[in-house]
Amino acid sequence: MKTEIQEAKGVLRQKIRAALKNLLPEKRAADSAKVRALLKQQPFWQTTSSILFFAPLPDEVDVWPLLEESLAGGKIAALPLFDAGSNDYLACRVQNPQNDIGPGQFGIREPKAGCPEIPLERLGLILVPGVAFDLHGRRLGRGRGYYDRLLPETHGIKCGIAFGEQIVDAVPTGRLDVRMDFILTPTRCVRAEE
Fold it and tell me: Strands (DSSP E) along 112-170, which ranges?
């Protein structure tokens, strides 16, 4: 039996997915470029030495160009790698995107076997995708809980990355949902309110 929170999350997922389907490709590309530019202006981006990126799905902000930029700037870049044994994600270092990344679980780009694992607590910045966010740092994921299991192990700054259409007044949350420290959209970077 679904709980009230699960039902509310399902309704919100449908609403946001419908809004994202209406985003024209040109606006999606322009807004992604704005997010990347604004992210690079943030002190937490400039001072961190290690970043956990995500491989964006078609309806997510495209942060991918920053992966190579961060490597060229001497930062440590990592991506989630699905570990079938634990049914969870690990963070693995990427040093050469052309050689180190391939298709992974669920069709998402991942580090290939042999990329070294990075302990989650060593990451300075975690870029987090989601379906929806609110300005209190609450995040609505895709419903499988992978990030909600990964994020408690991290000690770095958690930054939710979203289009403006993904920001809502309140995201329904349960006890296992992890809050973001910042929410970044094409027009603003907001420190999450308590």
Answer: 125-128, 132-133, 139-140, 157-161
End-to-end distance of the chain based on CA atoms, in angstroms? 31
Residue 1 has pLDDT above 50, yes or no: no
pLDDT in tens, 161-183: 999 999 999 999 888 889 999 99
User: Which one has a higher pLDDT value, 141 or 87?
Assistant: 141
CATH number for the domain running over 4-191: 3.40.50.10420
Distance between CA atoms of 166 and 60, rounded to whole angstroms? 10
Instruction: Give, for 101, the enclosing helix (H) or strand (E).
Output: strand 101-103
147 membership: H or E segment, kind and range = helix 146-150
Domain ranges in the chain?
4-191
Answer yes or no: are the C-beta atoms of 129 and 179 closer than 8 Å. Answer: no
Distance CA 132, CA 139 (A): 6
